[in-house]
Amino acid sequence: MSRATREAYRDVLLPLLRGRPELMCLDSDTGLFDAAYAEAAGDQYLNLGIAEHNLMGIAAGMAASGRVPFVNTMAAFATSRALEAIKIDIAYNRLPVRIMATHGGLAAGHLGPTHQALEDLAVMRVLPGMTVVVPADAAATEAFVEQSTDVPGPLYVRLGRKPTPALPPAPPPVIGQAQTLRRGGDVVLVSCGPYPVLACLAAADVLAGEGVEATVLNMHTLRPFDTQTLTAAARPASLVVTLEEHWRGGGLGGAVAEALAEAAPTRVLRLGMPDQFVDTVGNQEHLVDHYGLTAERVVGTVRTALGTAAPERPGRENATTRPSHP
User: Fold this and answer.
1) By CB atoms within 10 Å of each CB, which of 103, 264, 274, 315 scores lowest?
2) Contact residues for 222 (Cβ-Cβ < 8 A; gap 6+)
3) Is the pTM value of this prediction over 0.70?
4) Please, what is the average pLDDT of the chain?
5) What is the pLDDT of residues 154-179, one digit of tens each?
6) How many CB atoms lie within 10 A of CB 125?
């Protein structure tokens, strides 16, 4: 069933507020919380309006006074407009502020580059002490919100906007532990977020039909990074491919390449958004396909790297005939 990760967060937060008086919900007029929700949350909900820098400063003050604020704003504004307050007021003081960033990646594709967040993971994962999490579906979001109350220091959670499909059944994800969704010894496919993870699972199915067995890792936590699980999967493989809804620099692909360069040198091919601002108008699904964040691109990349050809399927276009993407 499809469900929006931001709505899953909203729905699981209210019961937590009722049972934990130290928790707070600080909003920036996102539209995610209606009047009924605000009434139900009572004094534990505060809408500060569209003032992201102030939002982070107030959250830091509350956290320094013993509260645990969940801060709601769009990812593009959290990691750019409010970055100074996050760096100096929150991260520097290792305060337990939970930054719940909606419209991550291309989720606000229809609003253009000003509202798209393709740099947020790179920005947040370099801040000392910052936990960075990217749920791949609604169930994972619920699990991470519940676990977040016990995470020391600040936490950044990248959420979407519209409903996205649920992942296939798997053990519940745990912050800081990569989720192995499929095992294979030939290649490793690493991704985070709803569309990339689903694309890698679909790519693994296609590759298996061609005799290439892939391990699929849902690397939902970019910090702290689960190097142990990654290196264990990468050592027997000849290739690691990463896919992310993010610019190629500094995000998941960068984290994977850094970890493997030190622990288990392996060939890494990073797939993500090209090094340019989005110049195409469309919703998230259209942009994900347009920029090749797809199973077809992953399959084509693996085929090319391993020197294998796509099987002939009369009357059907195979993945290698798709336009290439930088």
Assistant:
1) 315
2) 121, 125, 132, 133, 134, 192, 251, 252, 255
3) yes
4) 93
5) 999 999 999 999 999 988 999 999 99
6) 21
